[in-house]
## 1
Amino acid sequence: MAVLRPQDQLPGLNTATILLVGTEDALLQQLADSMLKEDCTSDLKVHLAQSLPLPSNVTRPRIDLIVFVINLHSKYSLQNVEESLRHVDATFFLGKVGFLATGAGRDSHCSVHRNTVLRLAQAYRSPLLFCDLEVESFRVTVAQRLVRMLQICAGHVPGVSALNLLSLMSSSEDPFVEGL
């Protein structure tokens, strides 16, 4: 069982790599496609995984940001993320992990309560975005935010580090939630 560490690989020149982890393959692919359409000065790489750990026999680039995607309509999605978190080295949680809760637009059908996801993000001191990835305009907006977060985590934004990410995203109401 390999633990994913942020310094496993050397950084690539002007390359920024994000790992999206979640059980919703089609939605993750749509989000990845939206991210790749964004205007970005970095060479953007998006990798998808249903869960962690990643296979150890595969050569992969350095991962600058991990985003765990939780579908609020699936308890399995939450359980999958909770199990995957055990395979991430603690140093990743110094600004290089985020959570994305999708399905937030249809509260009446949720099987995972928003507060459950909020507590998870708070426990890992990581930012949390709420979004409905099935709505294209929301998906495009969250893709823009994730690309910006990724650029910061990859060190491509002068004067801003991954450690500043949480404080940059905080609001006066709740320091862990960014809603779309």
## 2
Amino acid sequence: MCTGKCSRVVGVGLWPLALTCIVCNLLLCFPDWDTQYVKGGGRLLTPEVLYLGGLVGGGAMILIPAIHIQATGRQGCCGNRCGMFLSILFALVGVAGSIYAVSVSALGLVNGPLCQVRESNGSLGTWGQPFLSTDEELSKQSYLFNTSMWDTCVNPPGVVQFNVILFSLVLAAALLELLLCGVQVLNGLFGCLCGTCNKKQARDPKQTQY
């Protein structure tokens, strides 16, 4: 596979991953599919949701590089050594964005959701992050592997499962974005040194025939 074709594959692959991050981050703003938690500046939302790791890091900072990276795989102003060099810079932006998305989603999983807990006497307690723990406590036991602890959160209903699923999707998508952007950095470097194959294919149209 020449560097131009590789860029097209990377660019196309980044689109669905970025959209996944954006959609998941937006959905995290509506636990229990209710809009009341967004009101008041999102004070009842999990803090990591407001960091917008999926919307900004895994979304906007990936979509913009994806446009250029995909363009370097086509014949035109971007399908040359200069375009490949720029694709390296855009891919590095994507690397930074995906690392941010990975960090925020991992924190969201480790720290757990912001929720209203039930007191020992059965009454509703205050809002907080009941699963927030130190490194030592985390190494001993995590709520992620003990589903019996999930009932600690009363409101929003089902917020633990909701956050775990969506933050996990953002984390998985961001890791794949990181991999693809890393591949494009190497691919762009080879493209700068060896070219994109686009000119060669344009001179010899027989290569595109089956």
